[in-house]
Design brief:
- By secondary structure, the chain is α/β, with parallel strands linked by helices.
- It is built from 13 helices and 13 strands.
- β5, α4 and β6 form a beta-alpha-beta unit.
- The longest helix has 21 residues.
- The radius of gyration is 21 Å and the shape is globular.
- The relative contact order is 0.12.
């Protein structure tokens, strides 16, 4: 492979946990390399997906690179920043044609500035912004101002949803001239290969979701909605794939209402398709999102989706056709869940809706990125 003719893309993300940004980043890292392209990955040493890449010679693990912003450990944050600059410069000496591509908020800020000082082009994928309507104004400004300043040194933005484009054009100068929509794809093969045989149930209707146990995912709204639905229709169950800091509170909430027999917490799972095959509908109660990969996975299995109308979810879910988009209040979520669990014809119509998900396939996403990198160089 001739280094002079090869584009080297350095992906940067802080933590390899089981999230949409991480899945996209890893899909690109593994799928990009060709005779004219190579890829590297710089990430922190923590996360359940680290084991899957730890032996790859093109993976660089930085112990000081953490997802959380910590002023308490400011020295480590500064050290991490300069280590990142040094690492990128080293790769640039070895491979002349380098692009840095960052994913997630903190990696996006630190990674783009490190690439700026290393004098290489900077691409950033927006998987939803860190600032959102749910925040107090001061918190919103604290999240927005670093993004605004960093936008001036960003070579190109990749957006996964039309909602992020609208926000970017409104709030960042020249965003309209330097952005591309490339959907956050999923590895579709496990879902397309799966033969889903679960039709409208004679006895039990299973709702499912995939989410981190953190405030953004707003799982207590989902739990409250399900408790209402189960009281009205006892032939319902809820299964949740995920974990996180709120797990003790969630377990306590379930126990206090004696719902352990009908709510199952599966924890994180490397392969979610086998679980989703047993579900009848997918429910998401997030307060803010980019475009969650789990929505695409659900529709690949023809699961009707009920979700709060936030972020880019409306790019995939059409209200009343393949799911329902609700106001951000649990009562609306509960009503759509209850209606779906009781209405055979409605369920069949939503399940059978012919989605066009070509743009969400990993091969398509990788091809679009490869063309973008070539254009930037």
């Amino acid at each position: 492979m001739n280094a002079e003719q090869t584009t080297t893309v350095v992906y940067i993300i802080t933590k390899l946990e089981l999230g949409g940004a991480q899945k996209v980043c890893l899909s690109l890292f593994h799928g990009l390399p060709t005779t004219t392209m190579r890829s590297y990955l710089i990430t922190g040493a923590e996360g359940v997906l680290v084991e899957s890449v730890i032996n790859n010679p093109h993976v660089i693990l930085l112990d000081s690179f953490k997802r959380e912003v910590s002023f308490k450990f400011l020295f480590k944050e500064i050290k991490s920043f300069f280590t990142l600059i040094k690492t990128i410069r080293t790769l640039k000496k070895k491979h002349p044609h380098v692009i840095v591509h960052t994913h997630s908020t903190k990696a996006g800020i630190i990674g783009r500035w490190a690439a700026f000082f290393a004098r290489v082009p900077r691409v950033h994928t927006i998987h939803g912004f860190a600032f959102h309507e749910q925040q107090p104004m001061l918190q919103w400004l604290i999240c927005y101002i670093p993004e605004l300043i960093t936008s001036f040194i960003t070579t190109h933005f990749v957006c996964v949803s039309s909602a992020d484009v609208q926000t970017g054009v409104k709030l960042f100068p020249r965003f309209a001239q330097k952005h591309t929509i490339i959907r956050a794809a999923v590895e579709s093969k496990p879902f397309l290969a799966a033969q889903r045989t679960t039709d409208f149930p004679a006895e039990t209707f299973v709702f499912g979701t995939i989410a981190c146990f953190k405030p953004q995912k707003n799982l207590f709204d989902l739990l409250q909605a399900f408790a209402y639905v189960h009281a009205k229709n006892p032939h319902t169950r809820l299964e949740i794939i995920g974990d996180g800091v709120l797990r003790p509170q969630i377990e306590q909430w379930i126990a206090e209402r004696n719902l352990q027999a009908v709510i199952t917490l599966h924890g994180w799972q490397q392969s979610v398709a086998p679980f989703m095959l047993n579900w009848h509908a997918f429910v998401l109660s997030s307060l803010w999102e980019g475009l969650p990969c789990a929505i695409i996975e659900a529709r690949l299995l023809q699961l009707p989706v009920i979700a709060y109308n936030t972020g880019g979810i409306k790019d995939v879910i059409q209200h009343g056709k393949n799911g329902f988009l609700c106001k951000q209040q649990w009562q609306d979520l509960a009503q759509e869940m209850l209606n779906l669990s009781l209405n055979t014809h409605l369920y069949a119509a939503l399940q059978a809706y012919p989605d066009d998900l070509e743009q969400f396939h990993a091969d398509y996403m990788i091809e679009r990125h490869a063309k973008l990198y070539k254009n930037l160089l």
